[in-house]
Amino acid sequence: MDVIGRDETGSIKIVIEGIALFVPDDPGNRHRQMIAEWEAEGNTIPPYQPAPVAPPSITRRQMLLGLLSIGITEAMVEAEISEICDPIADPVEHAALMIEWRAAGTIERDHPLVTDLAGAFELPAEQVDALWIWASAL
């Protein structure tokens, strides 16, 4: 049995044989009794820690370093922008997207270009959020 910790409701998350369970903090519950035995051995239940939330924006520098950490270069991003909006078919829109990309001091997590680029690089929203959180600490 692995005791993960409490959740926001006060239940205790455990994993038994690969199955995650949320055990109520009820002394009559058999799983809670197993946890009590585990605690009697000197172990403690980790406190509840909310999942980190991606900040609404990060700096361009943080974004570039974050992307680089997963193998995506600035040149690759600019090539994808040209795929998203053909510079010959729609030069004004392409120029606007390049300005959005190159001139932004901060990058908004919910900006449509971020969503489009995440799709182009096949990055699920959870991975983008994790990258955003990681890069925000740089």
How would you characterize the overall build of this protein?
The protein is an alpha+beta fold and 138 residues long. The chain folds into 2 domains: 2-40, no CATH class; 57-136, no CATH class. Helices cover 48% and strands 15% of the residues. It has 6 helices and 5 strands, in the order E-E-E-H-E-H-H-H-E-H-H. The protein has helices at 30-40, 60-69, 74-84, 91-103, 112-120, 125-136, and strands spanning 2-6, 12-16, 19-23, 57-59, 106-108. The strands form 2 sheets. Strands 1-2-3 form a 3-stranded antiparallel β-sheet, with helices on one face. The protein has a two-stranded antiparallel ribbon with strand order 4-5. Helix 2 packs across helix 6 (125-136). The longest helix is centred in the C-terminal third of the chain and has 13 residues, at 91-103. The protein is elongated, with a radius of gyration of 22 Å.
On the 0 to 100 scale, the average pLDDT is 93
Strand percentage: 15-25%
How many discrete structural domains? Answer: 2
Task: Classify the oligomer.
Answer: single chain
What is the strand and helix layout of this fold?
Elements: E1 2-6, E2 12-16, E3 19-23, H1 30-40, E4 57-59, H2 60-69, H3 74-84, H4 91-103, E5 106-108, H5 112-120, H6 125-136
